[in-house]
């Protein structure tokens, strides 16, 4: 469960307990270079790093670790975007409260969706040795999609979008070359 803000509610702790235990572990080291690439890279590069990680994986455990690292990378990007939105819109309490409520609801939906996809996830071995990787890949896919949805509050929408609601409007002024300044 990503840490978007301190949520020490009983409901959150209960939801965390209902999920399967950590699906991969790092007792068996993944190649340090691959780990550092995935952890330090922006999403597009991280995709290449994941593919490289998978290309170098020799066992199912290593494949599962690569998927787990991709999920963690997606989660970090989601948290980065979420925190940037909170900072950018800090003066709009109504929006911030609504966004936090929406994010909590998305987390509940994501967890319920995962259990719908893998209803027997608490039965060891039910989905085979690739389950941890599949679980992580599915989480990463949903997390990337949520990040894309949230970025609208950072990027804005085109002027004239009459359904923009709380979404900011993109700047309509063209960017000036570096050596020029606005009058």
UniProtKB/TrEMBL annotation:
Taxon lineage: Bacteria, Pseudomonadati, Pseudomonadota, Gammaproteobacteria, Methylococcales
Domain Lysozyme inhibitor LprI-like N-terminal: 53-150
Protein name: Lysozyme inhibitor LprI-like N-terminal domain-containing protein
Pfam families: LprI
InterPro entries in alphabetical order: LprI-like_N
């Amino acid at each position: 469960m990503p840490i978007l803000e301190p949520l020490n509610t009983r409901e959150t702790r209960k939801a965390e307990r209902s999920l399967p235990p950590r699906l991969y572990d790092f007792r068996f080291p993944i190649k340090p270079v691959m780990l550092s690439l995935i952890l330090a890279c922006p999403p597009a590069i991280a995709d290449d790093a994941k593919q490289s990680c998978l290309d170098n994986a020799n066992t199912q455990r290593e494949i599962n670790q690569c998927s787990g690292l991709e999920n963690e990378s997606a989660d970090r990007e989601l948290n980065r975007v979420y925190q940037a939105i909170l900072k950018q819109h800090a003066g709009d309490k109504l929006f911030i409260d609504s966004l936090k409520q929406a994010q909590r609801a998305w987390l509940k939906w994501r967890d319920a969706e995962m259990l719908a996809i893998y209803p027997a996830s608490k039965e060891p071995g039910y989905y085979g040795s690739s389950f941890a990787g599949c679980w992580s890949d599915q989480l990463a896919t949903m997390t990337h999609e949520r990040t894309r949805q949230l970025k609208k509050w950072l990027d804005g929408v085109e002027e004239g979008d009459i359904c923009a609601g709380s979404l900011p409007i993109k700047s309509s002024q063209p960017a000036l070359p570096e050596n020029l300044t606005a009058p």
